[in-house]
């Protein structure tokens, strides 16, 4: 079975760890490809390839500044990912609430054990 093209949507594009790293770096503002490549420890052509995929799915924008091309994050492209993940928010919130209750119960039990031990 043929694999889906990595340029088809944001989900496929961010499945690649180095592309996610690029997005993290671009949170700090626009940067040239040479800087991104250096910070990621990859060649400029490799970084350019990843940036092309991110640009095609609408996760980065590019503008020319003299001889440089500056890339900037366009987080609006992550909206489908955010909306999809939001469906799991109730699950995680419930899990964390149950974990918090469990921790509080443990603390209470330890306090009770300590106070019972001091009474003897």
TrEMBL record:
<dbReference type="InterPro" id="IPR011991">
    <property type="entry name" value="ArsR-like_HTH"/>
</dbReference>
<dbReference type="Pfam" id="PF01022">
    <property type="entry name" value="HTH_5"/>
</dbReference>
<dbReference type="InterPro" id="IPR036390">
    <property type="entry name" value="WH_DNA-bd_sf"/>
</dbReference>
<dbReference type="InterPro" id="IPR001845">
    <property type="entry name" value="HTH_ArsR_DNA-bd_dom"/>
</dbReference>
<feature type="domain" description="HTH arsR-type">
    <location>
        <begin position="1"/>
        <end position="93"/>
    </location>
</feature>
<dbReference type="InterPro" id="IPR036388">
    <property type="entry name" value="WH-like_DNA-bd_sf"/>
</dbReference>
<protein>
    <submittedName>
        <fullName>Metalloregulator ArsR/SmtB family transcription factor</fullName>
    </submittedName>
</protein>
